[in-house]
Design brief:
Radius of gyration: 23 Å
Number of strands: 32
Largest sheet: 6 strands, mixed
Number of domains: 3
Distance between the termini: 26 Å
CATH architecture of the largest domain: Sandwich
Number of helices: 6
CATH superfamily of the largest domain: Cupredoxins -  blue copper proteins
Strand content: 35-45%
Shape: globular
Helix content: 10-25%
Structural class: mainly beta
């Protein structure tokens, strides 16, 4: 074990030394404030960065350092910002997950994130405190290849596409509802936004929530944004990210196909699609060629899938040809695929494979297998999500600090279960949850871990099974497979190693767990720190749908004092 730890530290030092000589440092200063915004024509408070929601797109090159100074100017609310998809190798305290890697940034206080972007690709950032992401604190983060490095595809220009869902209810109302007895769910979003803009139907009297002027269809902030202006025959790279808080989406461009070439920062074998299914926390790059009638404009559209879409206005944007006679299309917008066609979504998930020549082969077999069962039930009359019977909660002292400094009383020392009784499992009537706990899985540094996520149905009267996009902080994983129904270790387990041996497994940081099915991933626990692995739907992680992994905290250097100041660290120096 000591040999492995020394090897990890050597690799971290080598990675830092291998950064391009011309690597740059980019400084950003952000003021986080509440502002009245009308992104879909309905006026409400949004959490903004320098007055804007979404925030600015950050651009850097592989090996560059980002320094982001965050001033929390929210008078009554904490904050923290997670750099989604950035592995934070050597800087786990900069992951930006309140309760896991840092204390939250208090009102009136300032915190500086400093980290290296070690891989090129399409990434994002967003609030990671409570359910704050729902209020609009998010944006895109694009890491380009270094100068002189060619990518395995060509294009003439690139644009970012950030997909969001949007509620007229405040974050506080949503959070209080979820914590109430009986639970009041957040409901379906009112709108879908593309690059922060959309259109909600202001006609019904209820649209104003009794406020009269709350909904203004002619407001300057809402409308159908222009996605990009195309020149005939040119090919464009769209870097698409989803930061929805509940909705799974289908994205398409009227009359055009899209060729998927990147997923979560990794090149994939090109896949041509009419519509891209994208789940919260995922990013893709697609190539679109302007090969249609150049005298007109075309709709881009996002639609809810895997949930009833009738209460949510679709998202729309415009792809305008430079020679088009009018700015907006005269055709009806795309209607989208059938929202409950699970088979098509699973088929697209399975279609992605690592691009030959850019394959990082997975380890041949795991050292440890975690079978994780998600269930929803009541704990002390509160409706909770749980994994293997344990509903996750975040302690007052962040896990990283408590584990590094041996503050054993700050979290439950009993590890969560590695498995569940899969033999007797009935997916339509899963076992009840057991407890809400501050708990973590301790992983041997350098070990190979398989995680099999098993979906079930929500108890009656709902009774349906939902899509859960799972995101792993601090790592990328190999996607080994998707299955329908119940995962049977004796039957399905050997197939995971066979899939690994075949090669070509795509690497990602976020993966969909489809309704009434299972998803298997493999990763190497080689990044010292404490990392969250959770459903990326805000309501679900708020209700406990996640786990915490610890690996190698003892080899970390002294933790920065700036991440402390809450729980047991208040008034203490470590």
């Amino acid at each position: 074990m000591r040999t492995w730890r020394l090897a990890v530290l050597a690799c971290l030092c080598a990675a830092a030394a291998a950064a391009p000589a011309e690597a740059k440092t980019h400084h950003h200063t952000w003021n986080i404030t509440y502002q009245y915004k009308s992104p879909d024509c309905f006026r409400k408070l949004a959490v903004t960065i320098n007055g804007e929601s979404p925030g600015p797109t950050i651009r850097a090159a592989q090996g560059d350092t980002l320094v982001v100074t965050v001033h929390n100017m929210l008078d009554t609310e904490n904050t923290a910002i997670h750099w989604h998809g950035i592995r934070q190798i050597g800087s786990p305290w900069a992951d930006g997950t309140a309760g896991v890697t840092q204390c939250p940034i208090l009102p009136g206080e300032t915190f500086t994130y400093r980290f290296v972007v070690d891989r090129p690709g399409t990434y994002m950032y967003h609030a990671h405190y409570g359910m704050q992401r729902v209020a609009g604190l998010d944006g895109m983060l694009v890491v380009s290849v270094p100068d002189g490095v060619a990518e395995p595809f060509a294009y003439d220009g690139e644009h970012t596409v950030l997909l969001m869902d949007w509620w007229h209810q405040s974050v506080y109302e949503q959070a209080v509802g979820l914590a109430s007895v009986p639970m009041v769910f957040v409901g379906e979003p009112q709108s879908l936004l593309i690059n922060g803009r959309g259109v909600f139907n202001c006609s019904p009297p209820a649209a104003s929530n009794g406020g009269g002027a709350a909904c203004n269809a002619f407001g300057g902030e809402c409308g159908w944004p222009t996605l990009f202006t195309a020149s005939p025959g040119k090919t464009y790279r769209l870097r698409i990210g989803s930061l929805t808080s509940l909705a799974s989406l289908s994205f398409e461009i009227e009359g055009h196909t899209m060729t998927v070439v990147e997923a979560d920062g990794y090149y994939v074998t090109p896949v041509v699609v009419k519509n891209l299914f994208i789940y919260s926390g995922e990013t893709y790059s697609v190539l679109v060629t302007a090969d249609q009638d150049p005298s007109r404009s075309y709709w881009a559209a996002s639609h809810v899938v895997s949930r009833d879409p009738t209460k949510t206005a679709p998202g729309r944007a415009v792809v305008r040809y430079a020679s088009a006679a009018v700015d907006h299309p005269r055709t009806p917008p795309p209607t989208g695929p059938r929202w409950n066609d699970t088979a098509s979504r699973v088929a697209q998930s399975r279609s992605f494979a690592a691009l030959p020549g850019h394959v990082e082969p997975p380890p041949a077999r795991p050292d440890r297998v975690l079978l994780l069962l998600n269930t929803q039930s009541k704990i002390d009359n509160h409706t909770k999500w749980a994994i293997n019977g344990v509903s996750l909660s975040f302690p007052a002292t962040p896990y990283l600090v408590a584990m590094k400094h041996g503050l054993r009383g700050e979290f439950d020392q009993r590890p969560p279960p590695d498995s569940y009784d899969h033999g007797s499992l009935n997916l339509s009537s899963p076992p009840a949850s057991l407890a809400v706990r501050h708990a973590a899985y301790r992983l041997a540094l350098g070990s190979v871990v398989d995680v099999v996520l098993q979906n079930t149905a929500i108890p009656p009267p709902n009774g349906r099974s939902e899509t859960h996009p799972w995101h792993l902080h601090g790592h990328d994983f190999w996607v080994l497979g998707y299955g329908e129904g119940k995962f049977v270790p004796e039957v399905d387990g050997p197939g995971l190693n066979a899939a690994s041996a075949r090669g070509g497994a795509v690497m990602k940081n976020t993966v969909a767990l489809h309704p009434m099915g299972w998803t298997a991933v493999r990763f190497r626990a080689s990044n010292p720190g404490v990392w969250l692995f959770h459903c990326h739907l805000e309501a679900h992680v708020y209700m406990g749908m996640g786990v915490v992994f610890e690996e190698g905290v003892d080899v970390l250097p002294r933790l920065p004092a700036s991440i402390m100041g809450c729980g047991r660290t208040k008034g203490h120096h470590y």
